[in-house]
Amino acid sequence: MKPAARLAPTPQPGELEVPRGEFAAAVATRMAGARFAGLFGSAQGDGPVLLRAAVSRDGVLEVISCSVPPAGQARPASYPALTPAVPSASWYEREVADMFDLYPVGPLRVDPLVLPRSPQFPPPRPGSGPRHAESPRAPDESALPAHVSGEGVFTLPYGPVRSGIFESVQYLVETPGEDIPHVRARVYHKHRGIEVRFEGMAPADGALLAERVEGVASVAHALAFCQALEAKASGKEVPRGALLVRVLHAELERVANHLDSVLRHTEAAGQAVANARLAWHKERLLRLRAALCGHRFGRGVVVLGGVAGPPALSPHLAARELAGIEADVRADTRLLMATSSFIDRLRGTGVITAEVAAERGALGPVARASGSDEDLRTYRPYAAYGLVQVPEHRYRDGGDALSRQLVRLEELSGSFRLCLLVLEELAEGPVEGPWAGDVAPGEGISWGWAEAPQGELLYMVEVEGGRLRRVKPRSASFHNLSLFPEAFGGDIFTDFAFIEASFGLSIAGAAG
Amino acid sequence: MPWATRGLRNGVLTTHYPRSPDGYGGPWRGSVAVRAAPGGTGLPAELCPTGAISSGPSGAAELDRGKCILCGRCVAGRPDLFAFASSPEVASLSRGGLVVPPTEETEAAVAAARAELAQRAARLRRSVHVRHVDAGSDGSEEWEVAALLGPVYDVHRLGVFFTASPRHADLLLVTGAGSTGMAGPLRSTYEAMPDPRLVLAVGTDAVSGGMMSANYATRGGIGEVVPVDVWVPGSPPSPFSILYGILLAVGLLVERGPS
Residue A168: which of B2, B134, B150 has the nearest Cβ? Predict the structure, then answer.
């Protein structure tokens, strides 16, 4: 049975503005039974910075905002810190401090995260409009802060150039030799200033840039960005066929990302045959995506108001190819999960307890392996997820790498089924367009979201005079990377690769 | 034991490229070609989000593949001037060689670069060790580079190996637009490599910055940090494009002129 059709544009969250002094208290009171979903700053020219805290309760977003006046003489711009009452705000407050020179007043130290701070360089202050090119800043490579003390404990910088084909990130591992009592991630090596790049762009160009914020989740990013604009746009609604094509590509993207995560596990475990076979399946899937839209990562599919066009491959042919890949993936992963030398490496590795996951507001497969059942596709349906039956997933509560792997495998088969379902609908439906409605973006702020393979993806988009004034993507990779250190309880160096693979994050999405 | 038979189940999956062309392609975007159109009136420069389109000395349309992100707007907007080409062989030994249609000067520059590189890379022809560094990519390039080690592309058959240490590396494969945070580590990696050393800029971001213009955190491509020998455009380039670039670098293939 299909749920009722939901073609309505993305419902926008209510916004409550409070005085700066009451900001922390206002957020804290709304956190009961809710999850902290991000802190979004927006500079108003050279004037104040508007801070917006997003809180998600039972799938409904609420926004609490306050205005922070610019720094005066000998008085830095500041606001009451959220972190003491809301631990999951910690990384966001560090990011806001880096980007806006805006400091939370509280008992905790605010270390740099996405940018090295220096009094010589002005902060980028996204939202402050056109500006001259600022001088580039280089981080101090020799600075290695230490948090753990004890006999023989030293800090090992792992990265940013890593052994293998990885994205650049630096893990500061504090260790006496084998155990890892403390690890921290530093992402600023990859910081590309992408938020500032959005400013002043035409909305259609913004969609192309959104696809490149987190390249492995291009479809989810374009979708969340376009849905934010469509929420306020005037014009025709997104055609039904386009909603289905959006879901098709979003689900193919999920399959590709989850396959990549399993692939990385097999690589770390030295399962050569499984690794080769899964690499083959992943390649077939990327080729199928290219056959459907001309691009191996689905770029250019989602456009403002709909999709670029119908699938280039007939739904029947695509379904046949997809069913073939699914059968092979199912057979190989079943054998993999019966291989004791493989699952022994995952069981009990990198545990995120349900308490930690709830307190820190974990997202995506990481959360669903630690007792949460939140999935935006059913919590806050978008695109055609309200039109087709999203397979129910059984969430897990083990919290270890094995649980995360099991969650991913289950989602993998769910996504395969969803793709086949959508292809069936597309085969029945009209091949003729229209594939995109004519939309003119409205002025002001709007929000969009999507369940990316990594978890909840949020976009805050502000339009002024038909151009993008401020765009802030909040990737699940950023949020979940802040939980990464929590996973090291009694784990040793050889577990590192498994914990990293089981999180399945993209550093590009985290670094901005 | 079950894995041994599973591994044999589907026979050899590896492509024959470059010995014979691979059939895979078709609807897939390899590059944008400029059609020879009489009188380039009303050049649609504003169609391009990265400014890859300009008018050449004669007034005809020119397209810089090093800036092109293959979004296809020019192909949709002016099909009389632009078309998708599916060939993955788009890399060049000279930055100017990525501008189509080619001119005599760019062809001369490519020939000069080839002669210089042939001398430098002569010893690497039978086996080359590659060190990959991400200098601010969007993450998709890493998937395509990693695919080269899978069973479909299997670059080991061509004597190409990936190594963890820059001390063992002959070829530096760089992805990403050149974030300022990675400039130092990238430079150190390059300096740790023994001579002769080659540098491959992989992806439109690495070639020119692509959608990332130079700002406080990014440079316009990695050419500003390390000297580049082979330019591989694409957003991201397919594994075939990257493989073509590697073979071009070590002189196992000769650059085919842009079509």
Answer: B134
pTM of the model: 0.95
Going by C-alpha positions, the residue among B60, B154, B220 that lies closest to residue A279 is B154
CA A332 to chain B, closest CA, distance in angstroms equals: 8
| Among the partner residues A189, A209, A286, nearest to B182 by beta-carbon distance | A189
Nearest to A405 by CA among A465, A463, A342, A457: A342
pLDDT 10s digits, A424-451:
999 987 667 788 888 888 899 999 999 9
Residue B227 has pLDDT above 80, yes or no: yes
Task: Decide if A138 and B181 are in contact by the 8 Å CB cutoff.
Answer: yes
A355-413: per-residue pLDDT in tens?
999 999 999 999 999 999 899 998 888 888 888 888 877 788 899 999 999 999 999 99
Is there a common fold for B31-88 and B105-249? Answer: no
Contacts of B145 in chain A (CB under 8 A): 165
Question: Are B139 and A134 a contacting pair at CB < 8 A?
Answer: no
Average pLDDT over residues A496-505: 94
Chain A residues close to B164, C-beta within 8 Å: 163-164
Give residue limits of the domains in chain B.
Answer: 31-88, 105-249
Fold topology of B105-249: Rossmann fold (3.40.50)
The answer to whether the Cβ–Cβ distance between B180 and A508 falls below 8 Å is no
| B138 part of contact set with chain A, CB < 8 Å | yes
Structure tokens at B109: 């520059």
Residue A215 φ then ψ, to 5°: -55, -30
Which residues in chain B have their CB less than 8 angstroms from residue A508's CB?
137-139
Give the separation between CA A372 and CA A394, rounded to whole angstroms.
10
Distance separating alpha carbons of residues B138 and B157, to the nearest angstrom: 29
Structure confidence at residue A301 (pLDDT): 95
Q: Best mutation site among B6, B31, B132, B134 for testing chain A: the one with the most A CBs within 10 Å? A: B134
| Structural domain containing residue A19 | 10-127
Of the candidates A9, A508, A459, the one whose C-alpha atom is nearest the C-alpha of residue A203 is A459
Q: Looking at residue A322, what is its pLDDT?
A: 97
Q: How far is it, in rounded angstroms, from Cα A85 to Cα A493?
A: 33
Which CATH architecture does the domain made up of B31-88 adopt?
2-Layer Sandwich (3.30)
A396, part of any domain: yes
Interface confidence (ipTM) of the complex: 0.95
